[in-house]
Amino acid sequence: MDLSYGPEYEAFREEVRSFIETNRDRAPRPRTGLRAPETLAWQKLLIENGYAARTIPEEYGGYGAEPDILKSRIIAEEFARANVSSGLGGQGISMLVPTLLEMGTEEQKREFIRPTLHGEMIWCQGYSEPGAGSDLASLRTSAVLDGDEWVVNGSKIWTSTAHLADWIFCLVRTEPEAPKHQGISFLLFRMDTPGIEVRPLVDMTGVANFNETFFTDVRVPKHQIVGARGQGWMVANSILGNERDSLGNPDATLSRLNGLVELMKQETVNGHRAIDDPVLRDRLMQIQGRVMALRCNDLRVLSARLNQADARLARMVVKLQGTELRHELEGLAIDVMGEIGLAYQDNPYLRDQGSWQHQYMFFLGLIIGGGTSQIQKNIISERGLGMPKEPKYEKGQFAKAAG
Amino acid sequence: MEFGLSEEQTLLADSINRFLDEASSLDRVRQFVTAPETDVWSGLVELGVPGILVSEANGGLSMTALDAVIVAEALGSHTAPAPFLGSAVMAPVALQAAAKNPGDLLAALVAGEHRVGIAVGEAFAARVDAGITASSGRLSGKALFVLDYGADSYLVADGNANLYLVAADAKGLESRPLTTIDRTRRTGELVLKGVAAERVSDDPAVLRKALDYGRVILAADTLGAAQNMLDQAVAYANEREQFNRPIGSFQAVKHMCAEMAAHLEPCRALIWYAAHALDELPDEATLYASHTKAHLAEVGKFVAKTATEVHGGMGFTDLLGLHYWFKRIGFNRQMLGTPELLRDDAARVQGLVA
């Protein structure tokens, strides 16, 4: 058991801290636009210093460092601690770039990775469809080859940032006769191509973070495909793995827990502080115990990664437990506030800019998105515990079986 | 950085588990109910278990709290009847924290020649009619649900967190066994009437340390027991068929198993950290010990119920014996502090209680 990162890494931590202290005035404020000059300048500075796009090869516009899990982690920890923007995220950088590095042609890597990393090319993801959610492989948006072009028809849903994006990476069915996992291809195309319509989808927080995106005879050059025809499912699966690993961040949860303790010290009912109410305090302590368990679990997963081992179950439970716990933590804050917990938007009694109400709902979205809690339980029981799969029905078979 | 078990620790777990597979099989556990002397403890003594937390200077092995946790997990997994908590954990920890070793008691503990029962509940949660008072070196009062009853001496705490050693045959001490739901553990009652006692410590930090260790050990026992129940549930669900399918293929059943695993797996890392804190991070030790035992009590309760349900009617029978694990987990929950008490403790340690 050795919890220290070692002197080499502590020296690196000092470097990161001093960079942040020297440059923090140049960092964009929260809610600065994705295309604002200060956003792009900050991203450029971070990449030049190895604090963003750290392990992406220089020839594709990254910093080109050797992968080092602890250094990446120290960077994340220090930017979070300083509450300074750690640069651009989004599905282009977090999902498409690693996929192109893995599966893209040399030409694609050169064309797309650099501008994506530098925030000059914004992407959206076209996976889910109204009829293909948890059963993503049943997607029906079609692409038919017509000469040198794919002709795309269909629709996608939950396409975050589609209204801002320059490009989309999109799963389409190209081989309608093949078994469903083998008939999918992974296309890249511009969002200003004729035939694309984006309609905002307002979520329960009142914000249109998502969209519905419709394709009518959208013509895409034939070579804008990642991997071979019919291999799109394999390409997409490596991306989903990335997404699941990135959800449920125990450091963020800890800082929310600290915020909740502060809130409970300040909120009073009949002159008594919430923290002095033994029932509320017990609920707080229950949540703290669970946060501590997940933080320790995170250390275990990290340590396994450092040793090239797979923490298996410890890794598989992170998304399920992390999102459910966050939702409960935010919910306790609302109960602590009583009626004030209902306040929203311009209400003058709002606490902490309404973040508790917003996050309570937002995390319900994360419980569902990126593989629902029920899908997570399938993964845990089938892959983690070795339990048998649910019998699968072919198309139309269930109605017949149900008689 | 390395957060996990070392190779030696994995080997330790293997050797303890191998021994207990035989010595503490379910059949043997059933026998313990009628004949409470088994060869489990003598076998563990031979493996060096009582020396784990005793320093080399005192004749022990100078191993870590994490090693003790590994043993506790194996004991819980096998619902093993053994006086580990008192004689290998709380007594040695208290004696060494107080720098006391009367009559070379530590050597006798390591050799398995002496057993110490634990009567400290009255220091933090005295029930009606229970409670110990000290007056000019003599103890009076009543201690309930003494752990590892049937010992040669008892570590007794009074209401002021002072610790004493009382010989089981001391004049003025009356004792009797108390039956509990968990037949794999021995508990009893001590009634003291002006009993001469050897004072071990008048420093509350000594009792605190013994409690921190004891709580982490009980949490680890629950982890082992709950993991075993989950493993049994998964094996049963994969085997048992209804509606022409293994019941484990129904999401209603497999999701119960996934929920058990999702709650239980992070507990393993929590216990590792809590054990590490006992040895290396004194500022965090009590906070982690209290939270770890409280959290394992909650998760253990959930797993005990859910794993039983996965077994359907068979889970409710004595035939399968699943109830030994269910009751063991229940025992661990109530002893050395209930979850509510421990969470209050955790809040106090952080200065959150006015």
What do these coordinates show?
The complex is a heterodimer of chains A (403) and B (354). By secondary structure, chain A is an alpha+beta fold. Chain A has helices spanning 7-23, 37-49, 69-82, 90-103, 106-117, 232-246, 250-266, 278-306, 313-316, 318-337, 355-368, 373-384, 397-402; strands at 123-126, 142-146, 149-157, 167-173, 184-190, 196-201, 210-221, 225-226, 268-269, 272-273. In chain A, the strands form three sheets. In chain A, strands 1-4-5-8 form a four-stranded mixed sheet. A four-stranded antiparallel sheet of chain A has the order 2-3-7-6, with no helix packed on it. In chain A, helix 7 runs antiparallel to helix 8. Mean pLDDT of chain A is 93; it is low at 243-247. Chain B is of the alpha+beta class and 354 residues long. Chain B folds into three domains: 7-110, Butyryl-Coa Dehydrogenase, subunit A, domain 1; 116-202, Butyryl-CoA Dehydrogenase, subunit A, domain 2 (Beta Barrel); 205-349, Butyryl-CoA Dehydrogenase, subunit A, domain 3. Chains A and B meet through helix 8 and helix 12 of A and helix 7, strand 10, helix 8, helix 9 and helix 11 of B.
In brief:
The complex is a heterodimer of chains A (403) and B (354). Chain A is an alpha+beta fold and 403 residues long.
